[in-house]
Amino acid sequence: MNRRSVFRFAAALFATAAMAGAWPLAHAAADEAPDAMIKRLSDDVMATIRSDKSVQAGDINRIMGVVDSKIMPNVNFQRMTSSAVGPAWRQATPEQKKRLQDEFKLLLVRTYSGALSQISDEAVIVKPLRAQPGDTDVVVRSEIRGRGDPIQLEYRLEKAADGSGWKIYNLNVLGVWLVETYRSQFAQEINAKGVDGLIAALTERNRSNAAGKKG
Known about the structure:
Helices cover 58% and strands 15% of the residues. It is of the alpha+beta class. It has a single domain (3-214), classed as Tgt2/MlaC (Nuclear Transport Factor 2, Chain: A), CATH 3.10.450.710. The protein has a 5-stranded antiparallel sheet with strand order 1-2-3-4-5. The chain is globular and about 45 Å long.
C-alpha cells in the first residue's frame, strides 16, 4: 500500500470509527479518558465495516446519513474546517462558513468512502496516553496492524467546554496531518479568488466526484 493509499485508508478508518462509536458515546461518561474513547471506537469500527455492506461498498447516501446523525456529535467540525481554511475564516460571513463546512464535509466523505473496501482483517492498537490529568488538548497515538508494515495513526482531541466529552478535530497519518494537508490546497484558492472562490472550487470538485461515482 503506497503512502497515498495509506492516508486514504486511515482517513476512512477515522471517519468510520466516528460513525461506529457515536451512539455509545452519547451514553458514555463525560469523563471517559481520550485513549479509552479511541480504543472503544476502534474496536467498534471493525465490526461495523464487516457487517455493513453499504458502508463498505462506499454507498454515499448511506454514509452521508450516518455522518449527519453520528459523526458530527463526536467531531468539532467547525474547528476542523476553520483550521483548514486558515485566517480567511475570520472574515467569512455566517453563510460562507456554513457553505464551507457543508462542502468540506461532502468532500471528505466522497474522497475517503472508497477506501473503506480496503479494510479487512486489520486491528487497531491504542498506545499509552502521554498527557497530564488536567490536559484539555491531547494526542492519542495508535497503530493499524494487518498486512505489511504497521501504520502509525494519531488523533488530536479536545475536551469540550460544555462537558460533553472529547471531540476529534484532526488526524495524523505517517507524519501528515489531515487539516494541514487541506489548508495548503485551500490557501491557493483563497489567495487567487477569495472565500467565494474556495466555495465554488469545492462545489465543483464535489460535483465532479459525484459524476465520477455515477460513471
